[in-house]
Amino acid sequence: MRRLRLRAVLILALAGGTMLSAGVGSALAIFDATSSVGSNAFTSGTWAYYLHNNPTPPTANTAAQYNLTMTSTVPSAAFLYSYDNNNANRPGRGITRANPPSAGLATAYRYVNWRTPALAAGLALSGTVTVDIWSATNTATAGRTGSLIVYVRDYNPTAGTYAEISNATYTAAYAAGRAYYHTDISVAVPTTTIAATHMLEVKIESPRATSQNNMLVAYDTTAYPSFVRVR
């Protein structure tokens, strides 16, 4: 695996000449070299938010938490703790299958979500938002089918409401049980702008109809630096 060289910046120049001021507290991370992790390629100029637990970097097992943060800070923890020791209690975060899944689902243990800090300027989205996350089936049985659905949302912290932008479902057979695989989930999004003071939110659930077992996801470590690509 090649190491990814990153730098955090406050101003993003878009390809069309538009300028986005990300602002203090809502900076993105940019990959400044074309690199690869397994079969996944990262092109120079890709912008990303890293997914974190609370606290970050993680220092111990925690109970399941919601409304976690995603920021430009590169994960630095070497050990993957249990992020829900009151539920799945495995390294990483468990997601109990939902039947049916929905963007508004708020049942404990059936989802995990992350939000950026409040944006200092509007964030324009177009084309594809990609969630690069490590995932596993929560079973010892090999060859089981696992499934995740990703919702991309515009969250208004003042009103406490969200607007769904788009969603996508990933389904695949996992060769080994409870083994983490790098999962690249692409979400096609319409051209839209998340307003300043709002937050970009990503929410993940597991649909019972297409997942044979509950799921696990890993993030916020050097081995599992899961992130959301917006460019």
Structure description:
The protein has 231 residues and is an all-beta fold. It has one domain (6-229): Galactose-binding domain-like (Jelly Rolls). The chain is 0% helix and 46% strand. The protein has no helices and 17 strands. Strands 1, 4, 7, 8, 9, 10, 11, 12, 13, 14, 15, 16 and 17 form a 13-stranded mixed sheet that branches. The protein has a two-stranded antiparallel ribbon with strand order 2-3.
Features:
single chain; 231 residues; mainly beta; Jelly Rolls; 13-stranded mixed sheet; two-stranded antiparallel ribbon; disordered N terminus
Could you give the count of β-strands? Answer: 17
Helix-and-strand structural type: mainly beta
What is the CATH architecture annotation? Sandwich
Low-pLDDT stretches: 1-25, 31-44
Number of domains: 1
Number of contiguous helices:
0
Largest sheet, strands/sense/barrel: 13 strands, mixed
Helix content: under 10%
Sheet-strand content, in percent, reads over 45%
The coarse overall form would be globular
Return the average pLDDT rounded to an integer.
85
Task: State the fourth-level CATH superfamily.
Answer: Galactose-binding domain-like
Could you name the CATH topology? Jelly Rolls
